[in-house]
Amino acid sequence: MAMDPREALWSLHLLDAAIAERQAAADALADDGGTAARLVELRERLESLRSRARQVRSAQRAAELQLESLREKRQRLERELYSGRLNPRELVNLQRELDSLARQHAELETWILEQMEEAESVERELEELDGELRELEAAYRAAVEDRAARSRALEAELEALRQRRHAQASLMDPELLERYERLRQRLQPPVVRLVGEACGGCHVSLAAAFRERLRSGEDGRPLPCPACGRLLVP
Ligand SMILES: [Zn+2]
Fold first, then answer.
1. How far is the CA of 212 from the centre of ligand 1 (A)?
2. 2-55: per-residue pLDDT in tens?
């Protein structure tokens, strides 16, 4: 025995609503809330800090080598100063050169200390960022897996619902089906129940004679609401 066309229409509408709801949920799953973008940003920041740390450390090493050669030069000149082989004028010049070397030495030491502080600060920041990145990556991986599992479940539900929808539609009067399809392009929900004396869609009260026609369902057809045009089922 065939289903009452009004109940068939109602079933089809419920299936379409269930499909739309799961489709919206599946679409929402595609949005990760900006985490992937934040990860990219953090990785870039980390890379730039790493390169800065390398740069600072390498400048520091170069300065240390320079300091070492300054030290050797000073020692050599000091040995010469006390060798007793120099005349007074040469002694004055040598002393002047040694003073200048001492100033350079002190400046270079200060600069190296600054570089070390900078390197330590960059390395501290690197460590913090690295920790933050690891946490975010772990959370992101878990979220991706969770979303993938939910998405698979939703897809399976959607597939089952689409099959039921297809079967339901194939049983229906093609003319009613077409009317329904046209209606749902412009009205949501396209099919509503009578609620008391009113249309369940627009809530306008319906005449007693109209309600009676709908309930008795002589021809078994749903009737359009005179106010909003939705298909009414009792
Ligand atoms: Zn209505």
1. 16
2. 678 888 999 999 999 999 999 999 999 888 888 888 899 999 999 999 999 999
Q: What is the C-alpha end-to-end distance of the chain, expressed in Å? A: 20
What is the value of pTM for the model shown?
0.67
Cβ < 5 A residues, ion ligand 1: 199, 201-202, 225, 227-228
What is the Å distance from ligand 1's center to 216 Cα? 19
CATH 1.10.287.1490 placement within the chain = 32-170
pLDDT at 152 over 90: yes
* Residue 181 alpha carbon to ligand 1 centre in Å: 17
Looking up tokens 């004679």, which residue turns up?
Answer: 209
User: Quick check: 194 and 234 in contact, CB under 8 A?
Assistant: yes
8 Å CB contact between 9 and 231: yes
Q: What is the dihedral of CA 41, 43, 46, 50, to 10 degrees?
A: -130
User: Hey, what CATH class is 32-170 in?
Assistant: mainly alpha
